[in-house]
Automatic annotation (TrEMBL):
It comes from the Bacteria. InterPro entries: ThsB__TIR-like_domain. Residues 21-112 form the Thoeris protein ThsB TIR-like domain. This is TIR domain-containing protein. It comes from Halalkalibacter alkalisediminis.
Amino acid sequence: MAYRNGVYAAFDGQGKVNPTESDIRYFQLLKAWAEAKGEDFQYINSHDKTRAVRDSSKKETLQRVLRERLSKSKVMFIILSNETSYDRGFLNYEIEKALDLYKLPLIIAYPQISDRSINDQWATLEKRWPKALKQRLKDPKRDDLSCLHIHFKKELIKRSLNHMTVHDKKYIGARLCYEN
């Protein structure tokens, strides 16, 4: 079995070519924090653990590489913005495999929300959930899920990455939250 120490970041590219127009900008920010000199932000990118694939690759090829990356991950970090689609692209596939096959804990980060408590914004945040996430989080039979919902803020992300791991699932539940 592969050594599972990576962070698998997932987001909706919104079908955009320009990265500043999609959620990839938040993924790029994570990488920038990890690469900055003098920072103590630890981030092992699961996407760097396998060969690169092009968006134009066959669907089966993309899915195989995504599964390989997930198999080497300790946690899935999902970025859900106002523009996240309910049912587009590979995000639903990634969530499905992360939860059902690889049993990864999830950190679900919400950019573009107010500083109010996550619990106070729950009804709004649920509307951002892609189909695969909604189906699993709302399933009363899924008592194996470990999902932490946070604001997209550096210190909360850093803390979350230290606590959520497939190696020690001490936090079980679909509605776990860190507050500011």
